Amino acid sequence: MEKLQVWLQQATDTALGWLASPAALSQFALLILAYFIARLLARRLTPILEGTLTPKPEATHLIARLRRFALLFLPLLLPLLAYALTAVGEGLTRATFGTGEVIAFGKRVFLFLAALEFVRRVLPSGFLKLLGRYVLLPVAALYALGLLDDVTDRLNAAQVNLGNIEFTALALIRGLIAGSLLFWLGSWSNHQSAGYIKAQPDLRPATRELAIKASEVAIFGAAFLLLMSIMGIDLTAVAVLGGALGVGIGLGLQQIAANFVSGIILLLEGQTTVGDYVELDGGERGTIVKMTARACILETFDGKWIVIPNEHFITTRVVNYSDQGSANRYEALFSVAYETDINIVPDLIERAVSKLPFILQQPDGPDCELRGFGESSVDFAVEYWVSGIDDGKNKYGSPVLFAIWNALKEAGIGMPYPHRVVELRNAPGA
Description:
The radius of gyration is 39 Å and the shape is elongated. The protein is α+β, with helices and mostly antiparallel strands. The chain is built from 14 helices and 10 strands. It folds into 4 domains: 14-146, no CATH class; 168-252, no CATH class; 272-320, SH3 type barrels (Roll), CATH 2.30.30; 327-410, Alpha-Beta Plaits, CATH 3.30.70.100. It starts with a helix and ends in a 20-residue tail after the last helix.
């Protein structure tokens, strides 16, 4: 509070001195003149710049995107023109009167107004606007008031010690701001790079996932090292931290490390990738919808998600039913009565199943086989190929069974049911 009172007294004395000085009054006049000239120029230049920078609505190329991005900064035209004109006026004032504190203050105020417009009308809602509101504007206000150097010196004099690591309060604040901005930028860059990699049709799915993970590690690793440099932390301390982390992995984080390495192996081999329908020894089955550094996520046919550690795909048996849309073979079992002429059944069923739209003729068409002679029926099975996975033999199996039933009914072939003969011995009247 005492320091604030001193600052307020100094500001009051400075303002009164300016009001009593002809040189200061002339600088006020130059500030007002610079503002009105900047306003006139902005009014004339804004329509011209809008017409020049506005691309056609259907244009989506890089130049069009850059022009739309440049249009966002048009609200800054007025304060920046006033700042530039004031800078010219400051040079003239200092050359004429040997002083220019008033016009220099006005120049800083115009810069603050530019920052205010930048936060209000340029920055998008979300993290960047929050950062601009609570970081950029306070810094610009302190600079406009001429207090930024004093505040910076005081923060730089305050030491913060964390074990063997020493840094100033200014470095801590700068690190927090830079860290939040760097990791936001890293997240945005990772999202953009992932979208670009996924859009490449020539890359295998496993290669795309590996490239996405590699870019993510590179982006955030570079952001972390840059943050350490900004905060002024010696990287030897990071090496000590890395050694401690290695000991921790060796003692208690073996499973996490194993899953991470297993995930890299899965991505490199490409034998199991996103979109495959797999079944593990533990009975888990589903379509791989996501592969992370620690686990694979399976989606079952009933919509449940199962998280499977990557290590299980390396150390246990995995049945992969799909390879990016390859054909799969299924079979449908049925029986006919012993009174049936079984020689006509295979051709009848093969023709009926072949008419279904999802049945493939390659690598092989429907194949009806005699499987055996049961107690009450002759057992058959028809094998068929489809492009995709059957969800529990309901997606394709049900239409195939309907086709078999209808074909047998049309041919007058009945399906048997069990017959039992009961013999009663020593029955009355026998």
